[in-house]
Amino acid sequence: MRQDCILVGAPMDCGKARQGCLMGPDAFRVAGLPGALRDLGVSVHDAGNVTPAPNDLPEHPQLHALPETVGWTEALMGAAEAAMAEGFPIFLGGDHALSMGTVAGVAAHAKAQDRPQFLLWLDAHTDFNTPETTTSGNLHGCPVAYVTGQTGFDAFPGVPVPIPEENVCMMGLRSVDAPERAALDGLPVDLHDMRAIDEHGIAAPLRAFLARVAEAGGALHVSFDVDFLDPSIAPAVGTTVPGGATYREAHLVMEMLHESGLVTSLDLVELNPFLDERGRTASLMVELVASLMGRKIFDRPTRPFVGGFAA
């Protein structure tokens, strides 16, 4: 895993109606992400925030903020491909619709390197709706369908290199729409809901997926939605779903990813600081990124707790 990180802010807040994720990139910075990385010997370049590309698309009667989402997708696709050439990009969101651009961009870079792109989706949701199947009109529920080349995205830029469904692994699932279940039925997407994780643990399926990435010589993009985590430890998300990953399960995932040496890029999405409790969720996400980049459990400082939260 490269030790030169490029922070790319994506204050995208148009993938759903509830506002607040545009503050996410600055919250990650204020919570100490650059310093935590530097403490691990990682060089950090903050590339600032991306802005959406302009377009003349009309608003859509059923889809929320379609023109703006398309503009973000186009801009982030280019920004992601460029950042991959410079180091290890960490995309600071922003809602999960940003992954339409980031994942498509990193996959284009992998193709140029003659490597297959793999995707680890850490999320309570599969995000496998399309503009034709979404019942909410919120496009943050569509990125995996887009980057795997499903139909219905005519208004969006063409995906340069669709990711094969068998190269996608989803973990933490516990809220899936009926159209998504129907679309995924029979596809080779590697799906792990919280029931399976409760029964069998999270390490074995992750280890099996990482073995496939390694065997293929693949590049691995990790897309981490705050709602992968249980809301009792990460309340700052607008789509809270009880029963998510615990503190130790989340750290184990990140520790295993670090040990694999396979991760080449990362999304951090759906952090809504307006819903947080004294920066609790942002700080936890920074801790998890540090685990991904090599911090060991023995390296974590013991901090006094004041009023139930780490001081």
Give keywords.
10 helices; disordered C terminus; 311 residues; 17% strand; 8-stranded parallel β-sheet; globular; two-stranded antiparallel ribbon; alpha/beta
How would you describe the overall organization of this protein?
It is built from ten helices and ten strands. The protein has an eight-stranded parallel sheet with strand order 2-1-3-8-7-4-5-6, with helices on both faces. The chain has a two-stranded antiparallel sheet with strand order 9-10. Helix 3 runs parallel beside helix 4 (about 100-110) and helix 8 packs parallel to helix 9. Helices cover about 35% and strands about 15% of the residues. With about 300 residues, the protein is an alpha/beta fold. The longest helix is centred in the N-terminal third of the chain and has 19 residues, at about 65-85. The chain is globular, with a radius of gyration of 18 Å.
Largest sheet: 8 strands, parallel
- The stretches of 5 or more residues where confidence is low (pLDDT under 50) are 305-311
Mean pLDDT: 94
CA radius of gyration is 18 Å
> How would you describe the oligomerization state of the chains in this entry?
single chain
Compressed to H and E, one letter per element, the order equals EHHEHEHEHEHEHHEHEHEE
Q: How do the strands line up in the largest sheet? A: 2-1-3-8-7-4-5-6
Query: Percent helix among the residues?
Result: 25-40%
- Count the E strands: 10
Principal-axis shape equals: globular
Task: Chart the SSEs and their pairings.
Elements: E1 4-10, H1 24-30, H2 33-39, E2 43-49, H3 66-84, E3 88-93, H4 99-112, E4 117-122, H5 143-147, E5 168-173, H6 178-184, E6 190-193, H7 194-200, H8 203-216, E7 219-225, H9 247-260, E8 263-269, H10 280-292, E9 305-306, E10 309-310
Parallel strand pairs: 1-2, 1-3, 3-8, 4-5, 4-7, 5-6, 7-8
Antiparallel strand pairs: 9-10
Helix pairs in contact: 3-4, 8-9, 9-10
